[in-house]
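Hi team,

Filling in the usual template for the complex we talked about on Friday. All components are listed, including any nucleic acid strands or ligand strings, so the model treats them as one assembly.

SUBMITTER: L.P.
PURPOSE: interface mapping
COMPONENTS: two
RESIDUES: 711
SEQUENCES:
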Amino acid sequence: MATVSPTPLLKDELDIVIPTIRNLDFLEMWRPFFQPYHLIIVQDGDPTKTIKVPEGFDYELYNRNDINRILGPKASCISFKDSACRCFGYMVSKKKYIYTIDDDCFVAKDPSGKDINALEQHIQNLLSPSTPFFFNTLYDPYRSGADFVRGYPFSLREGVPTAVSHGLWLNIPDYDAPTQLVKPLERNTRYVDAIMTIPKGTLFPMCGMNLAFNRELIGPAMYFGLMGDGQPIGRYDDMWAGWCTKVICDHLGWGVKTGLPYIWHSKASNPFVNLKKEYKGIYWQEELIPFFQSVALPKDCTTVQKCYIEISKQVKAKLGKVDDYFNKLADAMVTWIEAWDELNPSGNISAKIPNGASK
Amino acid sequence: MSLSIKDDEIDIVIGALRPDLTSFMSEWRPIFSRFHLIIVKDPDLKEELKIPEGFNLDVYKKPDIDCLVGTSTSTIFSGYSCRYFGYLVSRKKYIISVDDDCYPAKDNKGILVDAVAQHITNLTTPATPFFFNTLYDPFTEGADFVRGYPFSLRSGVQCALSCGLWLNLADYDAPTQALKPEERNSRYVDAVLTVPARTLMPISGINIAFNREVIGPALLPSLRLGGEGKFRWETMEDIWSGMCVKVACDHLGLGVKSGMPYVWRNDRGDAIASLRKEWEGVKLMEEVVPFFQSVRLPREATTTEDCVAEVANVVKEQLGSKDPIFARAAKAMVDWVMLWKSVGSSTSSPGA
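RESULT (copied from the run log):
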């Protein structure tokens, strides 16, 4: 029987980014799993408020004043009064990996009653390859107890680097406002013991509540858009980042996984408040999805930044007519990349476009 | 939200590769006994079939096959492909097929899995191939579409094919099982999901169900390995057929689901023995997968038969010269469409 090597801690290679407007009491429950890591707290809302961080955590904290000071005029691309501000944390991090989690997410239990170390599972997901070109019916073939099924070509069994690990939620599911209104009591009690690669060419709704990614690979694509105060839309920040990220990962030959780990999502946000935030998004996404499904990135877009700038041009050209918001968003996307490159000057990961199987 | 399906809309088709079906049928009795069964005996099998009493079934053997399709054609139904004869002669809307070495499985709570009921649920609730739902099947109890899932895509499309999974002996190829002789699948994944449009996968014939009215002709015997044997490790016929089905479904806007139900697959055979015997299937997949990923069907192909005929054409043109096995497969596909039209078409076939 092959021995399973323990998952590396990566404590000096991973930052945990947490947006908050309230408090960080939830960290107490995560202490056994999070304490070795450096935290980046992005404080949204009133910067004069003091956010208390539990004792014993190593962290840096940024409020709106810090964001304005560090980015100057480019701070306009960072949302205010919306958890989208978390992407500022991605930008200032110096680590290879990011794990981001919401402050109403707690440790879940697996079916045997054991506490789930979500961070460890995310690390396993990121450190093992993805398989976007052909679907494995037994899900993640690199997990112990699983493998590639009959018919899976051997030439595709090495997989590709994993850029994103998208975790799920027990208890309060990530539903939109209309669904919350219709099913206010629905709780997710189903523990699906699987991780899988989302196939190339397929889009998905990426939730930022329990998300990890390889910042060195895909960081610049994880811009969470213009949301919240002064903006016509909210609760589409992670969606936007997810669609841009997936298109770029598909283009550059990297994988996106979804499934385990689960966290326990404790707080159901107010569906009426959510409806007001999402309202425009619900209409706009009918345009956005065909847009992202048809984005074609030219071969000379070999870095994430180049891909992202190209997408911003296409956003302006094709979505500007849906609403002027998209013109502003396209500009903000460019500002984001400029700010990213200023704060992270060391270099771009250039990917050789794989001669993989076509879509 | 599944429609209520009458038992007489369902046929259970079993390909008998081993003569003694007593324990197989007894184990499945609680689940199968309500339904009509079609048992097709592998024409190469010499021994008499042993089938317990108390089932509503029709059994087809070599003479029956010869009679219906002629002795030269009946060779296409040898081995695991015998089940396709059952698909051909059935007149029911839904077909469920499991290998004769598979038994009912138990779920995580220790409850016997009604594989038939789960397959029917999969086939009668919509599929969602155009956008991935991170909570898997949104139509199942306790789940729904997540935030960010476009509303215009929430009604889904008709599901044509339901691919189940296997506990214990998973459907690995011979090299994989030979490398890990003790490995058994013990992970019960409580999910059904739609395989996205334009995404291909290895569709195993071991535990499968489909809407015959809608996709029947695309499940076909055509790719036969030179050394094809009587163990799944020694075949690729279902994998090939599955590629055709998925391409046709993607083109026609139909869905394919994968996941539950599980069946318990008994240990059988020796992977190392199969490994020594047959690399051919494994090598062929290197050609087969990129080929199917590049197939684009013309707009004029509006029925499943059209799709199969078109794929056959492209196989002949692009793969025929690489290996005679593909040229033979292409011809077999064309012959199958003709056979389906003459023998397989039901009297009440709905227009495309």
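MY TAKE: Residues 103-344 of chain B form one domain. The first strand of chain B starts at residue 10 and ends at 16.

Thanks, L.
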